[in-house]
Amino acid sequence: MTRVPIAPHMLRWARERAGLEVEDLLARFKTLPEWEAGEASPTLKQLDAFARAVHVPVGTLFLPEPPDERLPIPDFRTVENRAVARPSPNLLDMLYVCQERQAWYRDFAQVTRQPPRAFVGRADRSMAPDEVAADIRATLGVDLEQRAACRTWKEALRLFIQQADQAGVLVMVSGVVLSNTRRTLNPQEFRGFALSDPLAPLVFINGADTKSAQMFTLAHELAHLWLNATGLSDAGAAPVSGGPAEEVWCNAVAAEVLVPLAALRPALADGESLGDAVPRLTRRFKVSSLVILRRLLDAGWLDRAAFEQAWQQERARLLALSAGAGGGGDFYRTTISRVSRRFTRAVVSSTLEGQTLYRDAFRMLGVAKTSTFNTIGREVGVML
Predict the structure, then answer these.
(1) Where do the IrrE N-terminal-like domain residues begin and end (predicted)?
(2) Which stretches does DSSP call E strand in 68-209?
(3) What are the residue ranges spanned by the domains of the chain?
């Protein structure tokens, strides 16, 4: 049996890169401690299995030193105003996949002679956030009363995504890498990103986040498209200072898109307690309680001290709730939402016209069967 001499520090790097402890892999690789200590070497078959378990190309493990893995787009994430360190393989793989999809759609848009989206780059940070927010709502046809009539946050999010899709934005929502449910995306690492392009503007939303948080992420990433600014975000509703100026501005735009002060002020009730006002307004605007708290501060209804106390309490409550959140849903709807309805229609149409191979279409859509492909084609109105 042939053993492969792999540097122990490369095995440790690959495991730590995947966010795993030795104990997490012992059931599959019983001699992993010996491999990492340099006391034993894996077989080629074991090395291949290990590489798949830690989501790294097997050839990378033969390098003398770990590669310098950098995010392929600007990183606006911060934790307590400090830049975030090493990206996870899940995040990197999701970024690369979305870049590939965007490149494909850009070519498709050129072939089908689609016009550039006029809203991409229509704003700059010298413009007032409320002015840009009004333009976003008008471009998407956002109707606050229509959103208020939605029965659930999920329904309101679906409406918001549909409006962005119809305006020409590829909105992709997933909580896992491709369709691998064992590779969950962590909202604490990132909440979304925007890949700006006049022909193929793309927004990715971390579907493992709460529905109300996803609403804010979409609004935030749309602001990035209006700036024509590609970037990775961990956007939250907090009115923070000291972070990247672009993120602070995009947060202000997003808050105004979802809860315009002109609509909020008439909805405020004199003498109402904060405990009654917040849940009532979250139901009215279909946003998170954190967004409502931020807008109450913006409107002067809360002072800074009261806001800070309420914010910390509510954030702790939401974190506790998210720990027990579950998944599920309709398979075909989930599959389409992962790649966007607009992208799905384009891929199915191109495949039926013979411009794209079925093999490539299956890979980009994350499906494995012709019957699934055909059902998805019917779902998006391309096939009968």
Answers:
(1) 165-296
(2) 78-79, 82-83, 170-174, 176-177, 180-184, 192-195, 202-206
(3) 8-62, 78-259, 331-379
- With beta carbons less than 8 A apart as the criterion, state whether 120 and 198 touch: yes
Q: How far apart are CA 269 and CA 265, in angstroms?
A: 9
Q: What is the pTM assigned to this prediction? A: 0.89
Collapsing DSSP states into helix, strand and coil, what is residue 172?
Answer: strand
The distance of Cα 308 from the centroid of its chain, to the nearest Å, equals 27
Q: How many whole angstroms separate alpha carbon 128 and alpha carbon 341? A: 32
| Residue 95 identity | L
Any idea what the Cα angle at residue 75 is, between residues 95 and 308, rounded to 5°?
120
Alpha-carbon dihedral angle through residues 56, 62, 64, 66, given to the nearest 10 degrees:
0
Nearest to 290 by CA among 250, 236, 244: 236
pLDDT, tens only, 204-230:
999 998 888 899 999 999 999 999 999
Tokens 């200590």, located at residue: 37
> b/e for 209-231, b at 16 or more Cβ within 10 A?
bbbbbbbbbbbbbbbbbbbbbbb
